[in-house]
Specification:
Structural class: alpha+beta
Distance between the termini: 39 Å
Largest sheet: 9 strands, mixed
Order of helices and strands: EEHEEEHEEEHEEEEEEHHHHHH
Number of helices: 9
Bound molecules: zinc ion
Radius of gyration: 24 Å
C-alpha cells in the first residue's frame, strides 16, 4: 500500500517524489498505521522495489491483500502521477468505511478506479461494483498486464472475472488493460466471445500520457474492418464444429442432441448456426451450442422464457437476464430474416456487421 496514517491521524502518501534517504529518515522518526484497520504498518524501502507500506500483522485487515505485487504498486503510482499531470483531483487508496472498500484511486471525488493485477473471484468484482454504486460513485476497472500486445484484430484470452470489467457504448463492448512497464493502456474492443477464455477483439494501445479523463472510449470499426473480425471468428467457429465431431458420450452431448433433433447435417451446418451477436458471452458457451439449443427448444414448443430459465447466465450478474432475453430474441429475428429472405452467406455477414456496428 502507498498510503498510511501517522499516529496523529494525518495521511501520508508515498507518491514517488521523496528520495529513499528522506524516507529512511522518516521511518526512524515516525510510526505508520493502516488507514482502514488501524494496524501498524512498516515502511519498506528496498533497492529495487517501490517504497511501500506493509502490515506487520495482516490478520485483522479485511481490505488489503498482501503481498502486493510491484506491478500493482507501480501501476497505482503511474495512474496517480498521470492524474496529477491532468490536474485532476485524485486520491490514492481511498478507504470508504461505509462499504469497507478501498479504491486504488479516486478521481474527482466521484470515480473509483480499481486496478486489478491478480485474479479475484468474479463475485468480488460484482460486490465491489455494487458497493461503489451504493455510494453513487462510478467505477472503472482496469486489468493489469505485463504482456506486450500488438494492435489489431486478434484472438485474445479474457478471464471470466474480467468480463465484470466490461463497459459499453451502445453495442460496442470493451474493457481497459494497463501495462505499467509499457506505460500504455490497451483497449480490447468489439469483443466477440468464442468459448471459455477465448475471445476475438480489436486491440488498440494508448500511451498513458495521451489518456484523458473521462477515459477515452475506443473508436468503432468500419463495416469493412468488422468483416476482418468476422473472418477470424468464422475460422474459430469452424474449428469448434470440427472439435464437436469427436466428442465422447455423443448421446448426452448438446451439439449431437440438438443437431439430431433439428435434423441438421453436422458436416455442413447452415451459417445461421453460431453467429456472433453482442452479449453472446452471457450464455458462457459457444454460440453454436446456445443457438442450437434455442432453436431445438422452440421446435419442441417451449417459449424463449422457458429456454432462458434453463441457462446459467443468471449466475453472471443481476440485471443480465434482460440482456440475455434481448440477445435470444435478436437471434431469432436474424434467423427469421435469414430464413424468409433466403440470405446468402455474404448477406448474412453484412447483417451481422450492421448489428455489431450500427449503433456505435
Ligand atoms: Zn489494514
Amino acid at each position: 500500500m502507498l498510503v498510511a496514517r501517522f499516529a496523529d491521524g494525518r495521511l501520508y502518501t508515498l507518491s514517488g517524489k521523496a528520495s529513499r534517504d528522506t524516507l529512511k529518515k522518516l521511518r526512524t522518526e515516525m510510526n505508520f498505521y493502516c488507514p482502514s484497520c488501524g494496524g501498524e504498518v512498516r515502511l519498506r524501502i528496498g533497492d529495487i522495489t517501490i517504497p511501500h507500506f506493509a502490515h506487520l500483522s495482516l490478520a485483522l485487515c479485511a481490505s488489503f491483500s498482501e503481498p502486493e505485487s510491484q506491478q500493482h504498486l507501480e501501476g497505482k503510482l503511474l495512474l496517480k502521477q498521470w492524474a496529477d499531470t491532468q490536474q485532476l483531483d485524485s486520491r490514492l487508496e481511498t478507504y470508504f468505511p461505509a462499504i469497507r472498500q478501498r479504491a486504488d484511486l479516486l478521481l474527482q471525488q466521484k470515480t473509483a478506479i480499481e486496478f486489478q493485477f491478480s485474479p479475484i473471484p468474479f463475485s468480488e468484482v460484482l460486490r465491489r461494483s455494487a458497493g461503489y454504486d451504493s455510494l453513487d460513485l462510478a467505477v472503472h476497472w482496469i486489468s493489469g498486464t505485463t504482456a506486450v500486445l500488438n494492435d489489431g484484430i486478434q484472438v485474445v484470452k479474457i478471464k471470466h472475472y474480467e468480463t465484470g470489467f466490461f463497459e459499453r457504448v451502445d453495442n460496442l463492448l470493451y474493457f481497459r488493460v494497463f501495462s505499467p512497464t509499457a506505460r500504455r493502456f490497451y483497449y480490447f474492443s468489439h469483443l466477440i466471445h468464442v468459448s471459455g477464455t477465448k475471445w476475438i477483439a480489436n486491440v488498440t494501445s494508448l500511451p498513458l500520457d495521451r489518456q484523458h479523463f473521462p477515459f477515452l472510449v475506443p473508436s468503432k470499426l468500419s463495416l469493412h474492418e468488422f468483416q476482418k473480425l468476422l473472418r477470424l471468428y468464422k475460422e474459430e467457429r469452424h474449428r469448434f464444429i470440427r472439435s464437436q465431431v469427436h466428442v465422447r458420450r455423443k448421446y448426452q452431448d448438446p451439439f449431437w442432441l440438438c443437431t439430431y433433433e433439428l435434423q441438421l447435417d453436422r458436416d455442413n451446418l447452415p451459417p445461421i448456426i453460431g453467429i456472433p451477436l453482442p452479449d453472446s458471452y452471457l450464455f458462457r458457451k459457444h454460440a453454436v451450442i446456445w443457438q442450437l439449443q434455442l432453436l431445438a427448444a422452440l421446435q419442441k414448443g417451449k417459449s424463449v422464457e422457458v429456454f432462458l430459465k434453463g441457462q446459467d447466465f443468471s449466475k453472471i450478474s443481476r440485471g443480465k437476464a434482460e440482456a440475455a432475453d434481448t440477445l435470444a430474441r435478436r437471434y431469432l429475428a436474424v434467423y427469421k430474416r435469414w430464413h424468409e429472405e433466403k440470405m446468402t452467406a455474404g448477406e448474412l455477414d453484412r447483417l451481422i456487421g450492421e448489428i455489431a456496428c450500427k449503433s456505435l
